[in-house]
From TrEMBL:
<comment type="similarity">
    <text>Belongs to the MIP/aquaporin (TC 1.A.8) family.</text>
</comment>
<dbReference type="InterPro" id="IPR034294">
    <property type="entry name" value="Aquaporin_transptr"/>
</dbReference>
<keyword id="KW-0813">Transport</keyword>
<feature type="transmembrane region" description="Helical">
    <location>
        <begin position="207"/>
        <end position="227"/>
    </location>
</feature>
<feature type="transmembrane region" description="Helical">
    <location>
        <begin position="131"/>
        <end position="154"/>
    </location>
</feature>
<dbReference type="GO" id="GO:0005886">
    <property type="term" value="C:plasma membrane"/>
</dbReference>
<keyword id="KW-1003">Cell membrane</keyword>
<dbReference type="InterPro" id="IPR023271">
    <property type="entry name" value="Aquaporin-like"/>
</dbReference>
<dbReference type="Pfam" id="PF00230">
    <property type="entry name" value="MIP"/>
</dbReference>
<keyword id="KW-1133">Transmembrane helix</keyword>
<protein>
    <submittedName>
        <fullName>Aquaporin Z</fullName>
    </submittedName>
</protein>
<keyword id="KW-0472">Membrane</keyword>
<keyword id="KW-0812">Transmembrane</keyword>
<feature type="transmembrane region" description="Helical">
    <location>
        <begin position="86"/>
        <end position="108"/>
    </location>
</feature>
<feature type="transmembrane region" description="Helical">
    <location>
        <begin position="161"/>
        <end position="187"/>
    </location>
</feature>
<dbReference type="GO" id="GO:0015250">
    <property type="term" value="F:water channel activity"/>
</dbReference>
<dbReference type="InterPro" id="IPR000425">
    <property type="entry name" value="MIP"/>
</dbReference>
Length: 233
C-alpha cells in the first residue's frame, strides 16, 4: 500500500505542477515586441490532459493513477475500492498537490513579473467569465460525473487494453477546453487545495465548492456505475 500511496503523491504532483504551471508560467507570455506568444487556454487544457496521460502510463500499473479524491470516491461507491484505501489515497493526493504547488510557487516567485497567481479555481466578479456560484457548482458536479464515468468505463475489464490513459487524458483536456473560463476547472479537490494554500484570499474562501461539487459528482458516477446503468456487464 505504501508504494501505491507514493505513486499517488508523485502522480498528483505531476498533474498540479504541469497543469497549474502552464497557467502560471506559460499562459500569457509576451515577446520583445509585446506580442503574446503564450499558450492560452488551449495550451492549458492540453497541459492538464498530457499530465494525466504521463502519470497514467507512468504509475498507473502501481496505484491505478487516480490522482484525484473524487475519482477514488467514485471507485468506492462503484464497489471497486474500500473506504480505508480511499482515505489513504485522498491524503496522498492532497500531499502531492501541495508539493506540486510548492515547487510551482518557488519557481514562479523567482520572476519579477509574477503577479501571485497560482492557477487557482474560482467564480464570480474578477474571475474568468464571472459565472455565478450556481453555474460553477453545476459545472463542477456535471463534469466530474462525466470524468469519473469515463474512468470507470475505460478501466473496466472488458475495455480495450492500453488505451485508458489516453482516453482519460483526452477527456480531461475536453473538460478544460469547455470550462476554464467558468471555474478554471477543478473536477479534483486535491488540484484545488494545493494552489489555494499558496494563493490565499478568494481561493481559500471559495475552496469549499471545489471540494464538495467534485466529490458529489464522483460519488454519483460510482453509484450509477454500481447500479449497472453505465457498466458494460
Amino acid at each position: 500500500m505504501s508504494k501505491k500511496l507514493i505513486a499517488e503523491v508523485l502522480g498528483t504532483f505531476i498533474l498540479v505542477f504541469f497543469g497549474c504551471g502552464s497557467a502560471v508560467i506559460a499562459q500569457a507570455v509576451l515577446n520583445g515586441a509585446g506580442v503574446s506568444v503564450g499558450i492560452g487556454y488551449t495550451g492549458i487544457a492540453l497541459a492538464f490532459g498530457i499530465s494525466i496521460v504521463a502519470a497514467a502510463y507512468g504509475i498507473g500499473a502501481i496505484s491505478g493513477a487516480h490522482l484525484n479524491p473524487a475519482v477514488s470516491l467514485g471507485m468506492v461507491t462503484a464497489g471497486r475500492m474500500s473506504l480505508g484505501d480511499f482515505i489513504g489515497y485522498a491524503i496522498a493526493q492532497i500531499v502531492g498537490a501541495i508539493l506540486g504547488a510548492l515547487v510551482l510557487y518557488l519557481i514562479a516567485s523567482g520572476s519579477p513579473g509574477w503577479t501571485g497567481g497560482m492557477g487557482t479555481n474560482g467564480w464570480g466578479a474578477g474571475y474568468g467569465g464571472e459565472y455565478s456560484v450556481m453555474a460553477a457548482f453545476l459545472f463542477e458536479l456535471v463534469m466530474t460525473f462525466i470524468f469519473v464515468t469515463v474512468i470507470l468505463g475505460v478501466t473496466h475489464a472488458s475495455a480495450p487494453v492500453g488505451f485508458a490513459g489516453l482516453a482519460i487524458g483526452l477527456t480531461l483536456t475536453g473538460i478544460h477546453l469547455v470550462g476554464i473560463n467558468v471555474t478554471g476547472v477543478s473536477v479534483n479537490p486535491a488540484r484545488s487545495i494545493g494552489p489555494a494554500l499558496f494563493a490565499g484570499g478568494a481561493a481559500i474562501s471559495q475552496l469549499w465548492l471545489f471540494i464538495v461539487a467534485p466529490l458529489l459528482g464522483g460519488a454519483i458516477a460510482g453509484i450509477v456505475y454500481a447500479a449497472g446503468i453505465t457498466r458494460a456487464d
